[in-house]
């Protein structure tokens, strides 16, 4: 039957049903809450402090968001497999030092220095993956070891003194603008789109969800779960290294004190964005929204001249609420099952 032969009333009813279904799916989406929170918080801060929505502040927020956001995406990929990576903050800090040391102390051009840094961080992620899959080591313990070693290595390499005199290419990566948008923000957006495409549009991405949801069922289905888990740990460490390169360019020095506690922000962004701590659930849209919400909270408290000592308290409360919501959602789904 052609469309023209369908009565107008039926066409209107079908359209209404489709629209209602779309709105219903949007309302049930776990990301809608955090996206709405971002919109409301930004609007409130812009009204309270008009300069908050100014171009300069938005550009600074975009650069900050990129630094936290890339490691949040990497962290989320690991959590989706049912694991955890506590090393991303310390590994980012070590990457800042390594990139600067390769460039200044070892005399490498900036390009090879960046590649060597990324290669080493990727190697660390590969070791994490092997330890978790082949040796059955708990991800928490495995990455906690790296967290401790990376922090100590950054201090040992520099003797606690920042490495100065790094190449201008680092600054170009972190301080260049593309149509008034900071290049780091553009790179973060590209990373997010690539992660979204991988998870939502590729067979391997769907396998990551399957492995995180039920490893035994995935194995029985013929999915090589070990490969997917190792790949996600490598990606997480690579993104931590990439974040370190961006931070080095923004600071202009290789400081050994950067990155402390950033893993908590990465985990918080993931959980706030709807990624389940038991694995198998979560989408890139929510992860990005979670990172944006944390950045709005951080920058908003600065704009409102709130004592910096309260920042961690607020972030801790937000993370606690997100974990509570995650557990309640998991309990509700288990009851339905």
Any overview of this molecule?
With 337 residues, the protein is mainly alpha-helical. It has one domain (51-336): ABC transporter involved in vitamin B12 uptake, BtuC (Orthogonal Bundle), CATH 1.10.3470. Helix content is 75%, strand content 1%. It is built from 14 helices and two strands. The protein has helices spanning 8-28, 32-48, 55-80, 88-104, 110-133, 139-158, 168-175, 183-201, 203-213, 215-220, 225-251, 262-272, 284-303, 311-336, and strands spanning 177-178, 181-182. Strands 1-2 form a two-stranded antiparallel ribbon. α4 runs antiparallel to α5. Residues 1-6 and 8-19 have low confidence and may be disordered.
Could you tell me the strand content as a percent range?
under 5%
What general form does the structure show? globular
Number of helices: 14
Our measurement of the CA-to-CA distance between the termini, rounded to an integer number of angstroms, reads: 39 Å
- Report the strand count: 2
Backbone CA Rg: 22 Å
Mean pLDDT: 88
CATH classification, class level: Mainly Alpha
The protein's oligomeric status is single chain
- Here the CATH topology equals ABC transporter involved in vitamin B12 uptake, BtuC
Count of folded domains:
1
Low-confidence stretches: 1-6, 8-19
Order of helices and strands: HHHHHHHEEHHHHHHH
């Amino acid at each position: 039957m052609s469309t023209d032969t369908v009565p107008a009333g039926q066409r209107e009813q079908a359209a209404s049903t489709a629209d209602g279904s779309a709105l219903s799916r949007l309302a049930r989406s776990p990301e809608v809450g955090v996206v709405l929170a971002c919109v409301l918080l930004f609007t409130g801060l812009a009204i309270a402090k008009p300069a908050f929505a100014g171009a300069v502040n938005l550009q600074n927020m975009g650069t900050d968001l990129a630094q936290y956001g890339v490691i949040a995406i990497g962290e989320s990929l690991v959590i989706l497999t049912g694991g955890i990576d506590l090393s991303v903050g310390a590994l980012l800090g070590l990457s800042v030092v390594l990139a600067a040391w390769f460039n200044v102390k070892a005399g490498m051009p900036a390009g090879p220095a960046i590649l060597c840094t990324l290669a080493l961080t990727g190697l660390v992620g590969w070791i994490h993956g092997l330890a978790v899959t082949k040796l059955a080591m708990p991800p928490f313990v495995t990455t906690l070891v790296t967290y401790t070693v990376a922090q100590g290595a950054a201090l040992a390499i520099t003797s606690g003194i920042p490495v100065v005199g790094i190449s201008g290419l680092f600054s170009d990566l972190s301080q260049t603008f593309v149509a008034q948008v900071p290049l780091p923000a553009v790179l973060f957006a590209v990373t997010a789109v690539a992660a979204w495409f991988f998870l939502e549009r590729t067979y391997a991405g769907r396998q990551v969800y399957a492995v995180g949801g039920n490893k035994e069922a995935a194995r029985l289905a013929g999915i090589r779960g070990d490969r997917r888990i190792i790949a996600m740990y490598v990606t997480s460490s690579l993104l931590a290294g990439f974040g370190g390169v961006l931070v080095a360019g923004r600071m202009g020095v290789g400081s050994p004190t950067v990155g402390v506690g950033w893993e908590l922000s990465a985990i918080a962004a993931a959980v706030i964005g709807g990624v389940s701590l038991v694995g198998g659930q979560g989408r890139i849209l929510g992860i990005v929204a979670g990172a944006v919400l944390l950045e709005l909270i951080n920058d908003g408290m600065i704009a409102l001249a709130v004592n910096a000592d309260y920042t961690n308290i607020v972030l801790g409360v937000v993370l606690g609420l997100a974990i509570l919501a995650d557990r309640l959602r998991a309990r509700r789904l288990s009851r339905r099952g």
